[in-house]
Design a protein that fits this description.
Subcellular location: Nucleus, Nucleolus
Main location: nucleus
Shape: elongated
Protein name: BING4 C-terminal domain-containing protein
Radius of gyration: 32 Å
Helix content: 10-25%
Number of strands: 28
InterPro entries: BING4_C_dom, WD40/YVTN_repeat-like_dom_sf, WD40_repeat_CS, WD40_repeat_dom_sf, WD40_rpt, WDR46/Utp7
Largest sheet: 4 strands, antiparallel
Keywords: Nucleus, Repeat, rRNA processing, WD repeat
């Protein structure tokens, strides 16, 4: 090592790293909670499997404890549908956005309402930001940011005519796509536009546009589905898509990616549901669905998949089991929306066995055993955090903010040394090593200011007088030499 101080710093860092690994191993012993599924217990597995699929929400609600039974409820809102929904990262708060302008934010477990209003114009999408006190709404003309009291905080006119919204929590970026086919990124921590690109992929009527939008939680790439069955993944650092693939032979209806960024599910108008491995972008499974395919898809934390077909919501389990040779969809649960309402949005609640469904006539909260992660990291997302803890977590998130230029396809390179940049800087230093003498600065005196100006003026006068005397002497010498 170069110095003793460097060696000491490295030793301290190594001790802290070993201590963190040891504490993590010890904390895993405390994670005694395990997910539980509805499983058959009889000899005839096929008959029991059919019986499990036919279980209704009333049957599940009557079999669970009182606290879990309260998580099953319906909201009848027939005047302002269809509804888009979004849960916070800790799974405690719910945001509803009706197509006809109705917006509501509340704590869905305690049923405490934060705010409810009608913006009196079309709402295309809603999305929570980094905390539960701010959310974004894509309205007909502009995108607005409101607080939890329903007060308008910002009007983002750079996001005009937005159709879909996605928020990247580790980068504080709000991504949006509009009718003209532009993908834009806004840094909500400073309120500035980071990038805006035209996807330049035509839809069915010959214009540029996107049919759906999702994000990859592992590397923060934005996935866009287009009318021709093309699926693209974008980063704010490049104008061209990092990945461009043909997922379906017709228009893509919905795309979702699991929390680890390993598996992706897509559905198209060709009535096919495909499961992809994002490590090599290969199709693992392909299933035949009902006509026109699933309109919305959503992965849970434990890799259950929810899909909606008009008024029917189906939950699948073990879709990507490579050992299974069956081409039939492994249905886990099934539910029909009331009064034949079409489901417009589905989302699993983090750390809860709950599936939220927004439809034409309101909202439904369904019980799905085994959907949520039973153990949570309080430093990452705490469902029981207080107001003080929320403020501290917000400050920590801002300090740990990741810059947009670090969004790449392969996120493993972020912890490595950039050798190319290091070599380039060394070459620039060697090329610019030649010393250039700076120009001589002549300070002119300011006669109007103080003693220093007068002193400099006197020095200038003396120097000019001596120079004049020297020039006269040289002139006399030249005359004498001529004579």
């Amino acid at each position: 090592m170069a110095t003793r101080r460097t060696r000491k710093w490295l030793n301290v860092k190594e001790r802290k790293s070993k201590f963190a690994v040891r504490q993590t191993t010890r904390s895993e012993i405390l994670h005694v909670e395990e997910e539980g599924y509805i499983a058959p217990d009889a000899d005839d597995n096929e008959e029991e499997e059919e019986r499990v699929v036919d279980l209704t929400q009333a049957d599940i609600k009557s079999s669970v404890d009182l606290f879990s039974a309260q998580k099953r409820f319906d909201l009848e809102l027939p005047l302002y549908g269809s509804y888009h929904i979004d849960y916070t990262r800790n799974g405690r708060h719910l945001l509803l956005g009706g197509r006809k302008g109705h917006i509501a934010a509340f704590d869905w477990q305690t049923k405490k309402l934060h705010c409810e209003m009608n913006v009196m114009e079309q709402v295309n999408d809603v999305k929570w930001l980094h905390i539960e006190t701010m959310y974004a709404v894509a309205q007909r003309q502009w995108t607005y940011i409101y607080d939890n009291q329903g007060i308008e905080v910002h009007c983002l006119k750079v996001l005009d005519r937005s159709l879909h919204l996605e928020f990247l929590p580790y980068h504080f970026l709000l991504a949006a796509t509009n009718e003209a086919g532009y993908l834009s990124y806004i840094d909500v921590s400073i309120g500035k536009k980071v990038a805006s690109y035209n996807t330049r992929i035509a839809n069915g009527n010959g214009k540029c546009g996107t049919s759906i939008m999702c994000q990859n939680p592992s590397n923060a790439l934005i996935g866009l589905g287009h009318a021709g069955g093309v699926l693209t993944f974008w980063s704010p650092n490049q104008r061209e898509p990092l990945v461009k693939m043909l997922a379906h032979k017709s228009t893509i209806r919905s795309v979702t990616i699991d929390q680890t960024g390993t598996y992706m599910a897509t559905s198209g108008v060709d009535a096919k549901l495909k499961i992809w491995d994002l490590r090599n972008y290969q199709c693992l499974k392909e299933y035949r669905t009902s006509s026109n395919g699933a309109s919305t898809l959503a992965f849970s934390q434990k890799k259950l998949l929810a899909a909606s077909y008009r008024d029917v919501v189906e939950i699948y389990k073990d879709l990507y089991d490579e050992e299974s040779t069956s081409n039939e969809l492994p249905r886990y649960l099934l539910h029909r929306c009331p009064n034949g309402s079409s489901a417009s949005s589905v989302a699993f609640c983090p750390y809860e066995d709950v599936l939220g469904v927004g439809h034409d006539r309101g909202f439904i909260s369904l019980l799905v055993p085994g959907a949520g992660e039973p153990n949570f990291d309080a430093l990452e997302a705490n469902p029981y955090q207080t107001k003080k803890q929320r403020k501290q977590a917000e400050v920590k998130q801002l300090l740990d903010k990741i810059q947009p230029d670090m969004i790449t396809l392969d996120n493993s390179v972020l912890g490595e040394v950039d050798r190319k940049a290091f070599v380039r800087k060394q070459e620039e230093k060697r090329n610019n090593f030649n010393f250039v003498k700076p120009k001589e600065l002549i300070v002119q005196a300011d006669k109007k200011k103080g003693k220093i100006g007068k002193r400099l003026a006197r020095k200038t006068q003396i120097r000019d007088a001596k120079l004049k005397e020297y020039l006269q002497q040289q002139k006399l010498k030249r005359k004498k030499t001529k004579n």
